[in-house]
Predict the structure.
Amino acid sequence: MFMTAIGLETADLSQERTFYTHTLGLPLRQTTADSFTVQAGTTALTFRFASQQPLHYHFAFTVPLNKWKQAKAWLTARTALLEGEGEDEFESERVRTRSYYFADPAGNILEFIARQDLPASAGADFGAEDLLHISEIGLVVDDVPGVVKHLQTRLGIEVFRDSSFEDFAQLGDINGVLVLAKRGRLWFPDQRQPAVVSPVHVSILGALAEQISLESYPCVLEVMPLTRVG
């Protein structure tokens, strides 16, 4: 599942724009009085102004596994990593990933994730241009199993490598995962920030054009047919 665009909201456009364009060095694709869009590999990331509080998100950028050490050095030169139980690197045997986490000025929890099953990337150095895409986005709901069943039926996507529980689930594949978290569940890795429902708009590639709104939640999933891309 490839995510081509993600739309989020923020109460401070200026700080967020500075972080994503200067700290992370992502190309600025568009800016208006109340929004900006940066490009993270093949995914467009847009923040729009909203006065709603609280707003909080989790999403992950995929980095090449063969540039894991270079990516960490590049990132830690720009911002601090989040720790969990004294560690700042994490590995999952279940989904075959390695990760480290950091926060943006709004407190959103971001992640660099390397997936063992993706091919290596050319070159030895690492820069913002080596970010492949955004491959995870958190969706906060009250009934995780119920939303899992709904999305399986509507989109035909499956649970990713048995990662489905009462308060947490992952739907998708190595290219893209919808992370469902129960409202109030504490986000990994430091487990200080409770998950809150925040508006999300996600565009993904699919066979047929379709737009799905999760009932009772400000979340829209838009399916873009391959023939329309570009």
The domain at 3-228 is CATH 3.10.180.10 (2,3-Dihydroxybiphenyl 1,2-Dioxygenase; domain 1). The chain has one domain: 3-228. The chain has a mean pLDDT of 94.
